Amino acid sequence: MAKAKLAKSPWMLHYDGSSCNGCDIEVLACTTPKYDIERFGIINTGDPFQADILLITGGVNHQSESVIRQIYSQMPEPKVVVAVGICACTGGVFKDCYNIKGGIDTVIPVDVYVPGCAARPQAIIDGVVKALAVLQQKREAWAGRRRGEA
């Protein structure tokens, strides 16, 4: 497991695109004392303007597409997106439905994929820890660009 040195606690925003809520229940389980995602310094927020990590469950449908784009655009750089569950990764069992566009990566870039139906809390936490390493890399690259480094 990669260890990330972050200057501040990363804030995570969870959004349900169009799921059956199985993955949402598992995301909620990650916040309980049994799994305790906060031990990694993660702070859960409902404000995209404060979020570093966007954790999305469910696939993209025509109604959620604009909302996902808006939330992503409101997040400050650098930011990381984690697709949780097979529906968020590919559209899942609903991918052939008339109203499903597919996985989250059909709308915004995804940095970490966490497959499963429903994704287990251990897998979700592993994905978020991987996202922390990606966030640190993006922060270093962002800082370098701000300093004028190539």
TrEMBL record:
Pfam families: Oxidored_q6. Belongs to the complex I 20 kDa subunit family. InterPro entries: Complex_I_20kDa-like, NADH_UbQ_OxRdtase-like_20kDa. GO terms for molecular function: 4 iron, 4 sulfur cluster binding; metal ion binding; oxidoreductase activity. It comes from Candidatus Gemmiger avistercoris. This is NADH-quinone oxidoreductase subunit NuoB. Its EC number is 1.6.5.11. Keywords: 4Fe-4S, Iron, Iron-sulfur, Metal-binding, Oxidoreductase. Residues 20-130 form the NADH:ubiquinone oxidoreductase-like 20kDa subunit domain. Its cofactor is [4Fe-4S] cluster.
